[in-house]
Amino acid sequence: GVGGLIVLYSIGYMDGDPEERRYFAYMSLFVFSMLMLVQAGNFLLLLVGWGLVGLASYLLIGFWHERPEAVAAAKKAFVTNAFGDATMALAFFVLIWQTGTLEFGDVFARAEGMSSTLLNLVALGLLGGAVAKSAQIPLHTWLPDAMEGPTPVSALIHAATMVTAGVYLIVRAHPIFELAPSIADLAAGLGAVTLLVAGLVALVQTDIKRVIAYSTMSQIGYMFLGAGLGAYGNGMFHLMTHAFFKALLFLAAGLVIHHLANEQDIRRMGGLRRSLPRTYIAFLAGSLALVGIPPLSGFFSKDSILASALASGGYGQLLFAAGLAGALLTGIYTFRLLFLVFLGDPSPLVKQHDRPGHAEGPWAMIVPVAALTVLAIVGGWVQIAGIWHPFGEWLDPIAVGREHLALVEPTVTQDYVASALAVGLGVAGIWIAWMFYGRARKWRVPRLDRVQETLERKLWFDELYDLIFYRPAVLVSGLFRRGVEEPLIGGSIAGVTLGAREAGGALGEAQTGYLRSYALAIAGAVAVLVVVFITVQ
C-alpha cells in the first residue's frame, strides 16, 4: 500500500524527466521484487527476491547516471549488499547440507538436530545479510549515499520492504535465531549501537534527505532490538508504523525539494512554513510520530519495544537505556530539521522561489502525502481497540514471540514506565532543539571542532574501510599488474604480435612477382617431396 502511494507520488515528481519511462520500469521491478521477497515460501525464493531488490535499488540509486556521485553511491550499495547476499548464500548451503531442504517449515523442524556450532554459523550468515540490507553497523555506510537517487526512490527504499527486509528475515527465521541465542543477542546489540550512532551523526547533517536517512538507520535499530530480544510482534508493528511516517517525511521533503528547484541543503532553507503551510503540517505530523509523541503511530510501536527490553532484564535493560538515549537524540535531530527548514525568516533562496497562491505541488504528489499524514496519525491506534500486541497475535501461526511466552512480556507498570520515560525524553529533545534551532534560539550551538568533524565524517567509517579494504586491494592489483599482467600476459601477446608481423614481412619478401621465381620454388618443392618419398620407401 505504501509502495502504491509512492508510485502515485512519482507521477508528479518525475513529470517531464526525459527518462521517465525507464524510472517507472525500475520502480515496477522494485515493487515486484519486494513482493516476491515477503511472499517466498522457502529460503531460495527469498534469496531471489533479496537479490532483485538489491539490483533494483542499484538501478534506482544510480538513475541519474550522468552524476558521478549517483554512480558511486549505486556501486557502494550494490557491493555492500552483495557481501550480505554472500553470507546468506553460505548459510543456505549449510542448511542444505544439514537438512536437505530450504523449505521454511522443514528447515525449522530439522534445525534442532544441528550442532550448536553450525546453528551459530547459519544464524550469523543470516544476520550478515540482514545487517547489510538494513544498513546496520558495520555495513551501514551505503544508505546515506543512496540519497543520490530521486526522492520517491528514497521513500520506497526506506519505507517499504527494502531496508526493513533485514528485520523481516530475522522474524521469518526466528526458530534458527532462538536456537542460537548469542547471535540473537548480537542482533539486538547491533541495533542498539546503530540507533545511537545514527542519531548522533544525524545531529550534524545538512542534507534534508540524509537526516531522514540516518533516522531510518536509527529506527531500524529499534526493530533489530525488538526482534533480537524475541518481541517479534512489536518489531514488526514498528516496521509498519515506521513505513507510514518515514514515507511521509521523505515525500514531504520531496515537496520542499521540488519547490526549491532541487535544493537539499537545509542551511539555505528557512521560513518555508509560509510558502508551504500544508507541507509543514504533514512534516510536523511525521516528525511527532517519529519522536513517538502520543497519540501518533510511533508512540505505540516504539514504546512497546522499549517496554519489552525493560521486561527482559539483565542485558535487555542495557538495551532499554540505549533506546531511551535514542529517543532523546530523535527529538533533537528531527526537530532541528523541522525548525531549520520551516521556521525563522525566509532565506534568500526561499524568497527567490516564493510564489504566493501557487499550489504546493501537483495532485499526484499532494494526495499520497495527505494519505500518509492520516496513516502516521492513526496507524498505531489498533492498540487502543482493545487488541493488545495485535501483530504478535497475527504472527502467532508463524512466529510465536517470546513476549507471548512471558519471557519479555512487560507488566502494566513497565509499560507505563517505558512510555513515560520515552515520551519525556522525546519532549526534552524537542525542547533542546527549540532552544538551539527554533525561533527563540536562546542557546548558541557549541563549537566542538573535533566532535563536529568526527560526526560530519560519520565516525570515520568510510575512511576506515578505505584503509582496510580499498587501498590494500589497489596495492595488490597494482603489484599483479606490474609483476604478472604486463610481463606475462601483455608481454606474451606483444611477442606473438611481433612474431606474426616478422613472419608476414619475410613471406612478403618472397612475393617477387616474377613467374620464374615461382616456377623455381615449385620445382624445388617437388624435388624435395620426391627425395623424401624415395627415402621413406
Explain what the structure shows:
It is built from 24 helices and no strands. With 537 residues, the chain is mainly alpha-helical. Helix 12 runs antiparallel to helix 17 (315-342).
Number of strands: 0
Major pleated sheet: none
Helix % is over 70%
Contiguous runs where pLDDT drops below 50 for at least 5 residues: none
Structural class computed from helices and strand pairing: mainly alpha
- The first-to-last residue Cα distance is 91 Å
Mean pLDDT figure: 86
Strand content: under 5%
The gyration radius over C-alpha positions equals 30 Å
Question: What's the arrangement of secondary structure elements?
Answer:
Blueprint: H1 2-13, H2 20-39, H3 43-61, H4 68-99, H5 104-110, H6 116-133, H7 142-145, H8 151-159, H9 165-172, H10 174-179, H11 181-202, H12 208-229, H13 232-259, H14 272-275, H15 277-291, H16 297-312, H17 315-342, H18 348-353, H19 363-378, H20 390-395, H21 412-437, H22 449-456, H23 461-510, H24 515-536
Helix pairs in contact: 1-8, 1-13, 1-19, 2-3, 3-4, 4-6, 6-9, 6-11, 8-13, 9-12, 11-12, 11-17, 12-13, 12-16, 12-17, 13-15, 13-16, 13-19, 15-17, 15-19, 16-17, 16-21, 17-21
